[in-house]
Specification:
The chain has 308 residues and is an alpha/beta fold. It is built from eleven helices and nine strands. It is found in: Cell membrane.
């Protein structure tokens, strides 16, 4: 009934921990699709053979090129055959029985989209402490997601919704924001909960400000690039969205530009004016300066720019 899609690149045995947390023996798990993005880890081939042998519901999709998680998430999503799709990062941990919680509530409320809380912890025992569930719902889905800043990898949707939304923007490297926007644009009803469900297990040295070497969240320049073009492309694809939602998106895009440039030698007084304008009249500021912003992000050297 549920197809689980994991994009994978050099996660080592953390992938195995993730798979175990998904309770792969559970009857509601139809399949677990692991889409490998051409891992360079010499142990990967051996581990791929191990997980396929150990977990009968595992399907591994191997690739001969590294294209990034957005393309690989789509690859897994379009290959999935379950009625519902659940997406999660391949080094995180899902709390026990959460898939049952999500599925039951989606069916009860006739929702096609579900989001739950993703949190960072150091202690695995913390996972057992979170059990209280309070649900919210909305049929004004895109607006609800934007106002609540729902753009993370703890999402379950119907396969029908995923196919209609077209998955992620494959011109970008990081998938989270474009997946959320595309699903939100086409969803009829979302349910969400603050119940802690997916856990990012930090090393003892890691904090919110110091991330591990193998985490995409460490590469802020890539985050800024992908966030900006997620919004830019979304606005181009859906020019008919209402002014309230467009204003929220434009504010986020302008804020992303300011975060990217404010501590660099390229910052000029005109950028301060763009920042101030984004607070007073974001749509006018966007119309006047968005071509300049495009040129700025396109000249960044240390980001992955994807050609599908």
């Amino acid at each position: 009934m549920i197809s689980i899609v994991l994009t994978h690149f050099n996660k080592g045995l953390l992938l195995n921990r993730t798979i175990e947390s998904l309770q792969p023996w559970d009857d509601i798990v139809h399949e677990i699709i692991v889409v490998d993005d051409h891992s360079s880890d010499p142990e990967w081939v051996k581990n791929a053979e191990y997980i396929v042998h150990t977990y009968p519901k595992i399907k591994v999709i191997q690739n001969i090129e590294n294209k990034g998680p957005a393309i690989r998430l789509n690859q897994g999503g379009f290959a999935a055959t379950g009625d519902y799709l659940f997406f999660m990062d391949s080094d995180d941990v899902l709390a026990p029985n959460r898939l049952h919680v999500f599925l039951n509530e989606m069916q009860k409320q006739q929702a096609d989209l579900c989001y739950a809380k993703k949190v960072k912890i150091h202690d695995l025992n913390e996972i057992q402490k979170h059990t209280a569930t309070v649900w919210e719902s909305s049929t004004n889905v895109l607006n609800y997601m934007l106002k609540n800043n729902i753009m993370q990898m703890c999402v379950m949707c119907t396969r029908e919704l995923f196919l209609k939304a077209g998955g992620c923007n494959e011109h970008l490297f990081i998938q989270d924001e474009s997946l959320a926007l595309n699903l939100g644009k086409h969803s009829k009803k979302i349910i969400s909960t603050d119940l802690h469900s997916v856990f990012v297990i930090l090393d003892s040295e890691e904090t919110k400000r110091v991330r591990g070497e193998n985490r995409l969240s460490r590469h802020l320049e890539q985050q800024h690039f992908d966030m900006f073009f997620t919004i830019h492309d979304f606005l181009n694809n859906y020019p008919e969205i209402d002014q309230e939602n467009k204003t929220i998106l434009v504010k986020k895009a302008l804020s992303t530009y300011w975060k990217s440039i404010r501590k660099t030698p390229q910052q000029r007084f005109s950028d301060v004016l763009i920042y101030l304008g984004s607070r007073m009249n974001p749509l006018k500021t966007w119309d006047k300066h968005h071509q300049h912003l495009i040129e700025y992000f396109n000249q960044l050297d240390h980001v992955r720019k994807i050609s599908p």
